[in-house]
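Journal club side-thread
Mid-discussion, someone asked how the predicted structure for our own chain would compare to the paper's figures. Pasting it here so we can look after the session.
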Amino acid sequence: MFAPFGKEKILCQLLLFFLVLLILLATSIASSSSSSFRVSNTAPSPSNYAFQQEAMEALLEWKASLYRHNNRDHNNSQLLLLPSWTVMAANGSNSSNPWKWEGITCNDEAAAAGGVITIINLSSMDLQGTLHDFNFSSFPDLLRLDLQNNSLFGTLPPTIANLSQLIYLNLYKNNFTGSVPVSLATLNKLTFLHLGTNQLSGPIPLEIGNLSSLTVLDLSFNFLINGSIPTTIGGLKNLVGMYISSNQMVGSIPMEIGNLTKMNSLMVSDNLLTGSIPISFGNLSKLNFMYFYSNSLSSSIPLEIGNLTNLYDLQLMNNYLTGSIPQEIGNLRSLTRLYLSKNSLSGSIPASFGNLTNLQSLQSSDNLLTGSIPASFGNLTNLQMLQLSDNLLTGSIPASFGNLTNLVRINLLQNQLSGQVPQEISNLSKLQDLQLANNHFNGYLPQHICINSASLIFFSGSNNHFIGPIPKSMRNCTNLMRFRIDKNHLTGNISEVFGVYPNLTFIDLSYNQLYGEISRNWGKCLQLTNLKMTGNKISGRIPPELGDSTQLQGLELSSNFLVGQVPREMGKLSSLLILKLNDNQLSGTVPEDVGLFSKIERLDLSMNNLRGSVPKQLGKCTYLLYLNLSNNRFNGSIPVEIGNLVSLQILLDLSGNLFTGEIPPQFGSLNKLTNLNLSHNNLSGSIPSTFSEMLSLVTIDVSYNELEGPLPDNRAFRNAPMESFIHNKGFCGNVTGLQPCISPSTKKQTPKHSHKVVILIISILAILLFLLFAFFGIFSFFRRRMRCIVEDPIANQQ
């Protein structure tokens, strides 16, 4: 009765024994697989221990050659540099466990004393130094070496090929120089090679095609790698990503790249590549990203590009591509970005673009595209950016644009588009940037542009044929930064159209037919740098509140009907570079505060009714290049301080005033000035001789004054027409139509010289008369004597 029970007990004991045995076996197996890089499941072997010691010594030797990038003091930096890299533990005991060292991973941390180093990861450690003291042969089992984002420099040693088990090499963002070592091609297990953002130079080795396991190749942003892309790259059948952008690669793109059918990222932008895009690229059906921009590629876009149905991002801009845009691009339904700008593409925009319903950004500016914008663009409901500027597009904007409710930016400037801008654009509540300038648009501006949203930031409609008023809804565009609507035919009262725009920096309403007064609200736009309203019918006074807009650099209110004085408050505009108030009806005097325009370069107050004297404080505006005060009623003498404006270069025009007195000799200091007009005043005296030093002067006009005397010996005076000197008291000089001048020294010496000549002549005549009389006396004496001699013999004979 107990026998069966005893057998069951024995059976239970046997089962328990086997269960314990299985648990022990499972524990042993688990222990053996605790690390993905474990090479043994027993106690450390003497050989592993030796490898470990050698590797530790090699790391310590390399550490001794390094220092912190931000601390060049070698001794001090050693205290902070990789402090865990030491053979002594913190308590002073011996430590020979490299797996405890920062950035070091061994294949068996449980048996750390015998594990071998498989990973070195010292990325972003602020290290500076070279790899010359790195003993690569001490790491035969190293799988990953990651030194990215440091300041390591020098050449890459060819001994790096001793890392025969390496599968991952990342030296990105250092300062390595020299060529890519040919020996890297022997690392046949390498899958990831990242040498980008260094200063490597020379060609890509042909032998790189031997890295048959390679999946990622990155040589980008070295800027000095040159030569052509080797055809041997076509052998890298496992390559998924190739990045060689921003170098100096030349030659054509090899058609062998079409063999890399696993490729999903191909980036060769910012090089000097030429030739056409190979049709073999149609084989890269897994390609997601294709960056060929900023090269010198030519010919047409291959039709085979329509096979790349997995393409997300296609960037071909800034090349010399020609021909039409293939209809086949409409097959790329996964496309989110399409950049074709800055080429020579022609023909019309394919209607098949309407199939690209995932498209978020389309840029095809700076080409030769013709025809109209397809109505099918209304299908691109995910579109956020549309840039078609600088083409030859005609026709009108399709009303279907009102469907593009995700649009943030529309740039259509510099085309030949016409017709009215569809009012449906007002529905685009996310629109921030609308560029319509330099076309032939007519009709009214969208009247509800900011009714649904205040998102608009940039608007340009310059140089079109818009009519009607500026939309009153502009008051709601409180995020506005730039607004240009100059050179149109807009009408209406602007006094109440605009509100307060805290971010506005630039507004130009020039050359329209707007009327009303300048709003005081502009003084509340504290970021405003440019306010332009030239060539309208604006009346009233310049509001003194403009002085509160202290960031103003350009204020242009010319050719209007403004009255009153120039406000003194404008002296607060210390950043002003350009002030143009000419051709108005301003009166009164120029405030002395004009001297506070310490940075001003152009000042034009001409063609007003300003009077009084020109403030001498104007001489403090030493950056002035252009000064025009003509056609006013300024009187008194010309301030000598204008001679301090030594930067004057383009023009100094004081003509058409009531200036009296002499021309200041200090004008001779204006040796950069090219054009000077002092005509139609009451200036007197002579032109200062210092004008001879104005060597840059090209034109001069001093007509209709009371000037006289010699003209300076200067190119501008010699070449000037006679009309530049008429209606004065009298000039002389080396100018056609004028008498030559007699120099003052000649005038002073003439009387003395004449007197001496007269005395000399009289003396000579006296001497000649004396000699003549002496001659006749002697002649008479001898004649009588001869007669006596002849007569004596006759008398004797008789």
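Post-session note: The chain has five helices and 49 strands.
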